[in-house]
Specification:
Layout (H helix, E strand, L loop, with lengths): L17 E12 L2 E12 L3 E5 L6 H9 L6 E6 L2 E2 L10 E5 L10 H11 L4 H14 L15 H13 L5 E5 L7 H18 L2 E6 L2 H7 L2 E6 L2 E6 L1 H6 L4 H6 L4 E8 L6 E5 L2 E5 L11 E6 L5 E2 L6 E13 L2 E8 L4 E7 L12 E6 L4 E5 L5
Parallel strand pairs: 3-8, 3-9, 6-7, 7-8
Antiparallel strand pairs: 1-2, 1-4, 4-5, 9-10, 11-12, 11-14, 12-13, 14-20, 15-19, 16-17, 16-19, 17-18
Length: about 375
Amino acid sequence: MNVPPALTNTPVVDRAQAMVELQGVTKRYGEVDALKRVDLSIRKGEFVTLLGPSGSGKSTLLNLIAGMITPSSGRIVIDGRDATTLPTNQRSLGMVFQNYALMPHMTVFENIAFPLQVRHLPKDEIRRKVEHVLDLIQLGHVAGRRPRELSGGQQQRISLARCIVYNPALILMDEPLGALDKNLREQMQLEIKRLHADLGITMLYVTHDQDEALTMSDRIVLMNGGKIEQQGQPDELYFKPATVFSAEFIGSSNLIPGIIEAAGTTGLSLRTAIGTFPVPAADHPVANGDKAMLLVRPENMTLGGEPEVTSVSGRIDDSILLGGVVRHFVRCEDQSTIIVQELNKPGRPVAKRGDQVRAGWPPAHARLLPATAPH
């Protein structure tokens, strides 16, 4: 298959508008390249999330921008200034980590005021700035408390307030919500998104949690094996993944391998172990005989044999109730499994384990992907 050399959808960023530029940055540890010639630009005021599994290079990239480590090769520019070898304290940035790093002997007010005191600001200005950020995070009522008297969510908001109080040009966040429970994590996602909208500070956020990335980001940079696999707006990565890795990492996926047939003006079809299906036009060059993957999201599939959909026969192996949706696992004739996700509506037909069904999808809601990763 003819695969393009890069499927990263790299946005064009005017250098005057760039807060961060990475130019051919590599980080090598012995024989291992943790990052491999990465090019990345982040606009001023943009919220960018580095998303990927453990070992993908996302934290290495963040630490390079923070100045915690230096690149083996390449250049790092922050706000128009070459920062490749600058120490962290000269980079005009703030950092928020999973560990709140609040000083236990200080009150909330004193914790937030500390970076301003280090900068020798007048007392009146310190008070004004601290009171302002406490209002922003809606925690003015806890100003006199110690960190141990606060919930985990409150402590993380104080940690964020301490970061934004001195108005850094760039805020780096390394999995700051990892220690919080699900409900609190979701609340904090919205809180961080609101603060970003209010303040307009450039934010670079690292996570392995796709929900966090999809919820908060202006742009997601998906990392894999020390490289950028794909980048774009959240809906672009979800609805238009460029590779099998992107499709599998973001959202749930049905991936059906097959061979391209009838590549030409009459349209494409894919011959698979469970049938031959019409497929939409590909975003990459294809030819008869090429290996490919057909992606269908579970929410785009239905149980039943509607005439306008493509379908396969199978047997219900299991069904899982997930609140407002039900997820069915359908065992096909070749023993592969297809996931069908339906709304959990009152009065819907109930499919039971062992039922013979047809799982279908509209051809327009499928996506053809290259079977191999780009080089």
